[in-house]
Write a structure and sequence with these properties.
Blueprint: H1 2-24, H2 30-56, H3 60-106, H4 114-211
Length: about 210
């Protein structure tokens, strides 16, 4: 297993080196480089399948470590496969754009070319519709932002009004309590004053009676 593991790891590093050739390859040789890299990747996947079988036959105390090493190789290989697919996709897109640009440059236009006029009109209509759609979305987003701002301001105003109402209610509650205490104290003071006057009169009457 160790021999196959090191061979597979070496193959992965070789493919990584070949990937650097893709960006430098010209249009005539890029297909050959891609095919060579794909063949190497397929060979690595085949070796990984054999490594997985050998891993399952390892002793229990070494099986987990062996599996982690094979999984790392598999991850590296999948990463290379994805990188190759992405490169091919970018190349196909560039080639398609080059072909369309070449066809457009080679095409001759005349003032009486009805198909060209229709195509241009359709393109203008599409661009106008797209511009109007973008403008409508911008207006809609602007209106939504204004509505949210207004609702936020109203919320702050209502919170302030609610606080003031609570403050006034608390003040009124305290005022009513104080007024009730004052009225109670005044009522008590009235009886005290009347009682004091009565006692004073009695004392004066007794004093006059006994002193005379």
């Amino acid at each position: 297993m160790e021999t196959l593991y090191h061979q597979t790891n070496k193959q992965i590093h070789e493919v990584q080196t070949h990937m650097g050739r893709l960006e430098k390859a010209d249009a005539q040789s890029v297909h050959l480089v891609e095919n060579e890299i794909q063949a190497r990747i397929d060979q690595i996947f085949s070796s990984l399948e054999r490594l997985e079988i050998l891993t399952s036959k390892e002793p229990p105390n070494r099986r987990q470590n062996a599996k982690l090493r094979v999984d790392q190789l598999k991850y590296d290989c999948q990463h290379l496969q994805t990188a190759l697919k992405n490169f091919q996709h970018r190349r196909y897109s560039r080639e398609q754009q080059d072909r369309e640009r070449e066809e457009l440059l080679q095409r001759t236009f005349t003032t009486n070319d009805a198909d060209t006029s229709i195509a241009i009109d359709e393109s203008l209509q599409f661009n106008t519709s797209l511009h109007n759609a973008h403008k409508g979305m911008d207006d809609l987003l602007g209106s939504g932002s204004s509505i949210l701002t207004g609702l936020r301001d109203q919320r702050m105003t209502l919170k302030g009004a609610q606080k003031k109402i609570l403050d006034v209610a608390n003040m009124l509650g305290m005022s009513n309590t104080v007024m009730r205490l004052i009225e109670k104290r005044a009522f008590q003071d009235k009886f005290i004053m009347i009682g004091g006057m009565v006692v004073t009169c009695i004392i004066m009457v007794l004093a006059v009676k006994y002193l005379t």
